[in-house]
Write a structure and sequence with these properties.
The complex is a heterodimer. Helix content of chain A is 39%, strand content 19%. Chain A is an alpha+beta fold. In chain A, the strands form 9 sheets. Chain A has an 8-stranded antiparallel β-sheet. In chain A, strand 32 and strand 33 form a beta hairpin. The N and C termini of chain A lie far apart (132 Å). By secondary structure, chain B is mainly beta. Chain B has 1 helix and 12 strands. The chains are: A alpha+beta, B mainly beta.
Chain lengths: 1060, 167
């Protein structure tokens, strides 16, 4: 009985031999096997008479076992006499079941190894203890017997054997008894030795049968059950070996405060008489009352072990009594040796004599101190000061250790400490709330640790009620027959979970298991959510470690690790999870008091941790928060460099820790920033605005705030300065490349006078000219330059590199006039002539630019060559006289031939082009455009060259000044670019309608004029007749095609066309 | 693991972009919008140049045109059990954070070999086994991903170096 296992047995009272219940573990079986070798083994031993018959199977088994053991020894001890002896003896015993004293002999053996032989005598005197430890000690030492015996010497052993035999002879047990003893002895040892064959014996066979001794229940005094059993034991001991040995095989009790079997002891014996005689004259037991014979079926139930709730220091319980504290939470400090009482601490409910005293005076026994009527005093930690004030005499204690005794109650550190019977504690389903636990924590110095998971868990562990399984959960069976089975829950009904087994041999099968032996199973990396129980409720995280049923996870929210029970977890598909408590969410800015704001960095079930503006963290309850400050999106502050910082900007601390983070809040002069580099406070830190500098502002915040990014809007617009320039009012054209650059010029004055050169670059006043004669670049005043036509060498008068287009117009006519060549002039006639012939023709030609375009595209080499130049110049420059002039001279130079061809034949040709493409009609119609006409023309006519034409028109400034101008408003570009035909197709009317409007609208008349002027320039006719105002001027250009744009055009084109 | 994956996306275009090279703009916008983003389970690393741009459809009300674009992209998806190399970004007593491209990996102390201990006294504090293993910011580590989680716009992973050939 000294062996712990043995003691367990006695506690569990399951010394009933066939008892092992289904589901009990190996140990239980073993206990079942060694039937009567418990507390009453000594009586049993002494009782030679009765010995019920054991099942033969069991005997055989024992025998074999014995044999095995002997062999084992043999192997160990190889050829020692003694071993032989041993074996011999074993065999002997096996064969001759009459040999009874084996146990005793063994014990003697073992003892003899140390003590002397005479010790056997004190068998009778051995106390309970001796008896108790006898068997186990023996069993234990037995194993080492060989070695010890070896050491001690053989003589001893042989003498022992003799003694044994003598004894055996004396003690005439019947065979059954003998068998039982074996069974008991070796049955007990087998599992202990890890033979592992215990499982071979089906449990059913171990159940009691009619051949086994019966069990009688005997009434006894309540609460004295154990005492009675001890007395029986003693009696058994006393009478052992005498003639009136007790005939019972076992006695046990299932008492206990909550047991239904209290007031009864159970005695196992073959006959009722044995029971009566065993209990005869014993105190507190009433064998004369009716004995209850326990039904065979009920025997196993009698021994069913109920796990007594185990209390561990640190776990939480609730008090049932005293009534003043009923329901109060208490913490177990210690368990008394007996295991019956626990030392707990709880928060006292004292009123320091406010009511106690008068009542105490009334009833000196103090029983009525706590009248149940009226409210009980609130829970409050014990205060020495208060106590002294109210009742100085009642207090005594030690101030240094802060332990006091007040009115007979003990107080430590403000808590009341008391030994309370365990049955007066509620151990299950304690579910301490955080608030209660915090009270404890606040009192204890190491409080924080105490409220930690461990103790909480211990008490929560019992509250199995909260375990819920849902279909889909992956579940592992950890207890019972199905242990180790893993499956997915498919159905849950009450306590039964239907599992679809996914692993192991049973895979694919469906089994039903009670929830009791189940736990949820997770794997590292699973994404789980804490669903209940612990204070981490609603945290979501990823599993990093699993040990037993404890799962460590890394929370998403704060990237910290927490450990919870697997039963409190669920697999979570959602992200985020917790992060709000009531109206407060993670990272919210809250107002604690008028001067303090804080940012929530952690949210628990009932409280939250905030980081205030001073960088301190504190735990607050929602009730402590004055209000929540809305996140002001537009909050702006200036950093230490004076740069503007806003939410979401990345800033870096200046000095200090140099932390860098994204601003989550700006409040007055503080910024709360979030960083990923640390987990502390969820990565939030606070800093003064003046102590951070911006690293990167959130890119392009303006666009984020105001719709689409206008700067990127139209790529065409941003393609080149031309777009804007073309469309732009006078001041604009100044911007951009000086048109002078690249021009061929002669120098009018100075040392280089008369030399021809090319302008390399210009400033406002000067131009750097690369001389053709000397390879030298000289600086010349712009005014001293005469611009020459690069090819013809003619002088271009009034060339103004930067004159606004509007100004150009007036100049041009002169130009046109003075330089007939410029053809404007030359062309004009042609155009006119053409126009004579075909108005359509005239228009394009008149259009100059427009005319040119097609011409070029058609024109091939020469033109091609020029085109780029053209494009370049034009494009970059925007519309203006120069354009015109250039065109002109481009035209004059190159075009002339083109024109020639054009004029002679190409006109029709081009026309035919046009005519082929219905666009041409359009182009015809577009004549009125003059320059407009160009475009369609250009596009249409060179259809093959459409790309060139189209592009020029659409995107590249190249087409012409006017086209540029045209481009600006885009629609033209769009329409023109893809399909000139399309442009035309809409019919001029349609075309005109939008364009002119667009053009006119954005570009003040002047601009327009210029644009058109360019077109006009070539056609002095156009220019001359209409030196008019802007809008009209443009139209005047079109004058050849009389009338206004819109309405007329179609009409105009129509007839013209017809003319053709 | 890297994959070439055919994806589809709807791109909307502001009316001011309507024009000849609209398709170019659409692709440009697509690139801007999509490249380098995380879609929940994978990162789109780059877009390859095969596009199939549908006809644009004007969205009533806004005037924006919507195009459905099919494109091929190189994507990167971290898998459970995949082993990847990463660079430690920061270390603390619970473990360390490492970055593998856009992916942040946390390696918990439980998933670090037991002989590698947290040494808060080192400068900077590091995980070390007292020998030649030092894990601190900047260290290259080889980790095995044991779990991933998608956040908005990013992925998270938990890694382990507690196996052979990891660390």
């Amino acid at each position: 009985m000294s062996d712990p296992r043995q003691r367990d047995d006695s506690e569990d009272e399951d010394d009933f031999n066939p008892a092992p219940e289904v589901g009990s573990d190996v140990e239980d079986q073993a206990d079942g096997n060694d039937d009567d070798d418990d507390q009453d083994d000594s009586p049993r031993r002494e009782n030679k008479r009765q010995s019920p018959a054991r099942s033969p199977a069991g005997d055989d088994h024992d025998g074999e076992d014995d044999e095995g053991e002997g062999e084992g020894e043999d192997v160990n001890g190889n050829a020692h006499d003694e071993d032989d002896d041993e074996e011999e003896e074993d065999e002997e015993e096996d064969e001759d079941e009459e040999i009874q004293g084996h146990r005793r002999k063994r014990r003697r053996d073992q003892r003899n190894a140390f003590i002397d032989i005479e010790a056997e005598v004190d068998d009778e005197e051995e106390g309970e203890d001796d008896d108790e430890d006898a068997e186990e000690a023996e069993g234990f030492i037995d194993r080492e017997e060989v070695g010890e015996a070896d050491l001690v010497g053989r003589e001893d052993d042989t003498r022992h054997r003799e003694l044994d035999r003598r004894r055996d002879a004396e003690e005439t047990f019947d065979a059954e008894k003998q068998a039982e003893i074996y069974q008991k002895r070796y049955g007990a040892r087998r599992p202990a030795r890890g033979m592992g064959d215990s499982g071979v014996v089906p449990q059913r066979l171990l159940l009691p049968s009619v051949d086994d001794p019966s069990i009688w229940g005997v009434r006894c005094k309540e609460g004295k059950e154990r005492e009675v059993v001890f007395s029986i034991m003693k009696r058994v001991d006393e009478r052992m070996g005498t003639k009136d040995e007790l005939g019972i095989t076992a006695a046990f009790e299932r008492g206990g405060p909550n047991s239904v079997m209290k007031g009864l002891i159970y005695v196992e014996a073959q006959r009722q008489n044995d029971v009566l005689s065993a209990l005869d004259g014993m105190l507190n037991v009433y064998p004369r009352t009716k004995l209850l014979l326990v039904d065979i079926k009920e025997m196993p139930d009698l021994l069913r072990v109920q796990k007594t709730p185990t209390l561990e220091p640190g776990s939480w319980v609730r008090l049932k009594r005293p009534p003043k504290h009923a329901g109060d939470l208490a913490q177990v400090l210690d368990i008394t040796q007996s295991g019956l009482e626990a030392r707990v601490r709880f928060i006292p409910r004292l009123d320091y004599g406010m009511r106690d005293d008068p009542l105490a005076a009334m009833t000196p026994d103090g029983k009525r101190k706590r009248p149940l009527v009226g409210p009980r005093p609130p829970q409050k930690l014990f205060s020495e000061v208060e106590a002294r004030k109210k009742n100085p005499r009642a207090i005594s204690g030690n101030p240094t250790s802060n332990t006091w005794i007040y009115n007979g109650d003990e107080f430590e550190n403000g808590f009341q400490v008391k030994d309370i019977k365990i049955q007066l504690l509620t151990v299950k389903d304690v579910n301490p709330s955080l608030e209660e636990v915090t009270k404890f924590a606040s009192g204890g110095e190491d409080g924080v640790e105490n409220i930690d998971l461990k103790s909480l868990a211990a008490s929560l562990k019992d509250s199995s009620a909260s375990v819920t399984y849902l279909p889909g959960d992956v579940i592992e069976v950890y207890d019972g027959e199905q242990r180790g089975v893993v499956g997915r829950a498919t159905n849950v009904q009450g306590d039964i979970v239907t599992l679809d087994v996914t692993e192991g041999d049973l895979a694919g099968q469906t089994i039903e298991v009670p929830t009791k032996g189940l736990r949820k199973r997770f794997r590292p990396g699973d994404h789980v959510k804490v669903i209940g129980g612990s204070r981490y409720r609603d945290e979501v995280g990823m599993v990093v470690k699993i040990s037993e049923d404890r799962v460590t996870l890394l929370t998403d929210q704060s990237t910290t690790e927490i450990t919870v029970f697997s039963k409190d977890l669920r697999e979570a598909s959602d992200i985020g999870g917790q992060g709000s408590l009531g109206q407060y969410e993670m990272l919210d800015l809250i107002q604690l008091d008028p001067t303090t704001v804080a940012c929530i960095v952690k949210i628990d079930r009932e409280s939250m941790v905030v980081l205030d503006q001073n960088g301190d963290t504190r735990q607050v309850m929602p009730s402590q928060i004055a209000n929540k400050l809305p996140r002001r999106k537009l909050a702006v502050a200036a950093d230490r460099n004076g740069s503007e910082i806003r939410l979401d900007d990345v800033v870096k601390e200046y000095g200090g820790m140099g932390r860098q983070g994204k601003i989550v809040h700006i409040h007055r002069t503080w910024v709360f920033c979030h960083t990923n580099t640390t987990n502390e406070n969820a990565g939030i830190f606070v800093s003064k605005v003046s102590n951070v500098s911006t690293i990167s502002a959130k890119g392009g915040r303006s666009q984020h705030s105001s719709g689409p990014d206008l700067t990127k809007m139209n790529p065409a617009l941003s393609m080149g300065p031309k777009g804007g320039a073309g469309m732009a009012p006078p001041p604009k054209p100044i911007i951009g490349r000086d048109r002078l650059v690249g021009q061929t010029v002669t120098i009018r004055k100075g040392g280089y006078k008369g030399l021809l050169g090319r302008v390399k670059e210009t400033s406002d006043t000067h131009a750097r000219v690369e001389l053709h004669t000397k390879s030298k670049v000289v600086n010349v005043l712009k005014g001293d330059l005469i611009v020459k036509d690069a090819i013809t060498g003619r002088e271009l008068k009034n060339y103004d590199s930067r004159r606004p287009p509007g100004m150009g117009a007036p100049g041009r006519p002169g130009e046109g006039r003075t330089v007939p060549d410029w053809n404007g002039g030359s062309r004009t006639p042609m155009a006119s002539s053409m126009s004579n012939r075909t108005p359509a023709w005239k228009t394009p030609s008149g259009a100059g630019n427009g005319g040119r375009t097609p011409a070029w595209s058609k024109g091939g080499g020469d033109f091609g060559g020029r085109t780029p130049a053209w494009a370049g110049a034009d494009g970059s420059r925007t519309v203006n006289p120069y354009d015109g002039s250039r065109t002109a001279y481009g035209g004059s130079g190159s075009r002339t031939p083109a024109w020639n061809s054009g004029s002679k034949t190409p006109a029709p040709d081009s026309f035919s082009h046009g005519s082929k493409t219905p666009a041409y009609g359009g182009s015809g119609a577009s004549d009125p455009w003059s320059s407009g006409s160009k475009t369609p023309y250009g596009a249409a006519a060179p259809t093959p060259g459409a790309s060139g034409g189209g592009d020029t028109w659409g995107y590249t400034p190249g087409a012409s000044g006017s086209s540029g101008a045209y481009d600006a408003p885009t629609p033209g570009a769009l329409l023109g670019a893809p399909t000139p035909g399309a442009m035309n197709a809409p019919t001029p009317g349609a075309y005109n309608a939008p364009t002119p409007g667009a053009m006119n609208a954005p570009t003040p008349g002047a601009g327009w004029q210029g644009g058109w002027g360019a077109a006009d320039a070539p056609t002095p006719a156009g220019g001359a007749p209409t030196p008019a105002a802007s809008g009209s001027f443009a139209y005047a250009v079109n004058a050849p095609t009389p009338g206004a744009w819109s309405a007329e055009t179609p009409a105009a084109s129509g007839p013209r066309y017809e003319d053709d | 693991m890297f994959f070439v994956y055919t994806l589809e996306r709807r791109v909307t275009l502001h009316p001011s972009f309507f024009g000849k090279n609209m398709h170019e703009l659409v692709t440009r916008k697509l690139l801007d919008d999509v490249e380098g983003t995380c879609t929940g389970s994978y990162y789109i690393i780059t877009i390859m140049d095969s596009f199939l741009i549908s006809e644009g459809k004007i969205l009533p009300g806004s005037g924006l045109a919507e195009f459905t674009v099919e494109y091929k992209a190189v994507i990167w998806r971290p898998f459970k059990g995949e082993t990847i190399d990463a660079v430690v970004a920061s270390a603390n007593q619970h473990g360390f954070f490492a970055e593998a491209g856009p992916l942040r990996i946390f390696v918990s102390g439980h998933l670090i070999p037991s002989e590698v201990k947290w040494d808060p006294n080192a400068t900077p504090p590091e995980w070390t086994d007292g020998d030649d293993t030092h894990i601190k910011a900047g260290t290259h580590v080889r980790t095995k991903i044991i779990g991933t989680r998608a956040d908005i716009g990013e992925l998270w992973a938990i890694g382990s170096i507690k196996e052979d050939y990891l660390g």
